[in-house]
Design goal:
- The protein has one domain (4-72, 130-206): 2-Layer Sandwich (Alpha-Beta Plaits), CATH 3.30.70.20.
- 18% of the residues lie in helices and 26% in strands.
- It has helices at 18-26, 75-79, 106-110, 132-136, 142-146, 157-164; strands at 4-9, 37-48, 54-66, 85-87, 94-96, 117-119, 124-126, 152-156, 183-186, 200-201.
- Strand 2 and strand 3 (54-66) form a beta hairpin.
- Electron transfer subunit of the terminal reductase during anaerobic growth on various sulfoxide and N-oxide compounds.
- Residues 185-208 are annotated as: Disordered.
- Keywords: 4Fe-4S, Electron transport, Iron, Iron-sulfur, Metal-binding, Repeat, Transport.
Length: 208
């Protein structure tokens, strides 16, 4: 099996959301459903000086563009009661069989990355399938093509590791690794470790 993976360079991502918008427009996703989400993580504070001005005190901020990570041990597949969530044996892509899915949202609850979402009008779960139709014909995922800063890349996992190194998936606001996500994340220089961060996601609700 050739396991495909995404790469994200956190130092290059500007939070422009072109990846997010390109995906949403291509797949005509319903309101409140995104296959890829760009998180804005910020922290720190401002402290007063003797002159009455305010200066930054450990202020930081960075972006994390996240889709389904097509995990090596996907919790959505392991917990799906109907077998609708499947991991392709040739590509490692995790996809949803909409003919079998009953929209019970068990996968959404199980996924540590909050990837699957219920399509309320459709009646089944929706999530990133790594543009498997494009991939099958020799193309690349839409989000990767659309990224103007080339912060996103994609290819066989071994190639991504050889090109970018192992990376570090355990950075805020992502959880600790329990499913073997196939995302090679090169953290932003100010990225904080998962579970120990002092910042918060500051996106507006409608942005996620």
């Amino acid at each position: 099996m050739t396991q495909y993976a995404f790469h994200l360079d956190g130092g290059k991502c500007t939070g422009c959301k072109t990846c997010q918008v390109a995906c949403k427009e291509t797949y005509k996703l319903p309101v409140n459903n995104l296959y890829r989400r760009v998180y804005n993580y910020q922290g720190g504070s401002w402290k007063p000086t003797e002159a009455g001005h305010y200066v930054p005190d450990g202020v930081f901020g960075y972006f994390v563009s996240l889709s389904c990570n097509h995990c090596t041990d996907p919790a959505c597949v392991a917990n799906c009661p109907t077998g609708a969530m499947q991991k392709d044996e040739e590509t490692g892509i995790v996809w949803t069989d909409h003919d079998v899915c009953i929209g019970c949202q068990t996968c959404e609850t199980a996924c540590p990355y909050n990837a699957p979402k219920l399509g309320e009008e459709e009646g089944y779960m929706l999530k990133c399938d790594m543009c498997r139709g494009e991939v099958a014909t020799g193309g690349k995922p839409i989000c990767v093509i659309g990224c103007p800063m080339r912060a996103l890349d994609w290819g066989p996992l071994d190639d991504m590791v050889a090109k970018y190194g192992e990376g570090d998936i355990e950075v805020e606001p992502l959880p600790q690794d329990t499913t073997g996500p196939n995302l090679i994340l090169t953290p932003h220089p100010k990225a904080q470790k998962s579970g120990s961060g002092t910042g918060a996601v500051v996106n507006l609700e409608e942005e996620l």
